[in-house]
Amino acid sequence: MVRKLTAAAAVATLVVSCAPPTQKPTKVRALVLSSNGEYVPTEVSLQTVTDIVTLEGDVVKMQGGARILLDSNDPEARAAQTEEAFTRALLKDAGREVTASYITDEQGVLWPADFHTWNLVTTYYNFERAWDYFTTTVNVSKSELPQMTAYYFPEFTLKDASDKPQRDNALFFAPVQAFMVLPFESIQKAPLAINASVLTHEYSHLVFNRRVYGGRSIPVAINAWTAGGATPALNAIKSLDEGLADFHAYVASCKSTFGCNTRVLATSFESSVEQDRDLSNATKNCMTDTLLEQLYNTNFNAFSGREYQVGTILASSLYFAAQSEGDRQELARSVAAAYSDTTPSKYGFNQLAQAALEDQSKFTFDVGARSIVRHITNVNLKQRVCSQFATRLLPIELLTGTVDDCPASTTTVTGVCP
Ligand SMILES: [Zn+2]
Description:
This protein has 418 residues and is α+β, with helices and mostly antiparallel strands. It is built from 14 helices and 15 strands.
């Protein structure tokens, strides 16, 4: 009886409101991973949202009901002469604004009133955390990261792979320069957009696209490197993109209530290779002769899927090299600085890729690894990264060379990798 009265009293104090005015910051409830690993409705402050009903703000604008088709036989896409025309051809229906609904409690906090609002608000919150991480911790300027569209539950079809629309994923999709939060079907745990680490990983792909590929829908380097026999540069740049996205997601997670999360994409289906990408696995994250051979000597059609394996070893090397929050943050900044740098002694991936358009052997994986090393200014941290790279990732002779590369005195950590 007491319980019943309390519940009735609580309901009485709730004010139903479908279109609350948007205040900055906006206090809402979102599903956030708690310190014991459960998703809990948690009060958060959205700092950048300008319309809480359509879920639009400085970071993303949620857009429902879109239809996106990638089909190598699509006459519209084939006829496209410019990148903009290609993007338009893929976007069969741009969709429309979403409408979130809330219940305002007596403290003025907005509670999502239905499932989609919980999912939308949490998605916005996770994108905002990722944007905050890059603009504050990693020092990426806000002007580099303007508002992006996030297609919510679009019909997204990769026709060459399947007639059936894609499900159970959240991704950055460069051809339309937007994020997508796909409907779920078979996923048993939390929907992917609720997983903050997944969205930080995807947001990292946006940062990589903007810095390394100049924000292009069809990156020049990817286009140039697709044909031919062995594609060492394509294999390398894809591995760098995946691995560094995992590393950023890990560093960003250390600021969360849950704490540092080394199993970044434990529930993601982005990879076709089913594996547990745990950065903290000391003896598993080691390059093998076979993987190294494939990285340097196979075509991406055969390599595809292995960029996640190489990426995990790269991210794990950085994980083991960082010994403190200060190290983690410095490494995150060094890595992002290596994406683009016009200084000749330490060119970034962007510049190195441009110089290798005609010759893939000029942008092999070690070239990327050395660019990261050259951007680490703290001598001790650099030494530890070199030691981890030499232990897990690449033969030492591929890491040394100029004064800015790894020192010839770099030693490996014994008893870790065979
Ligand atoms: Zn990825």
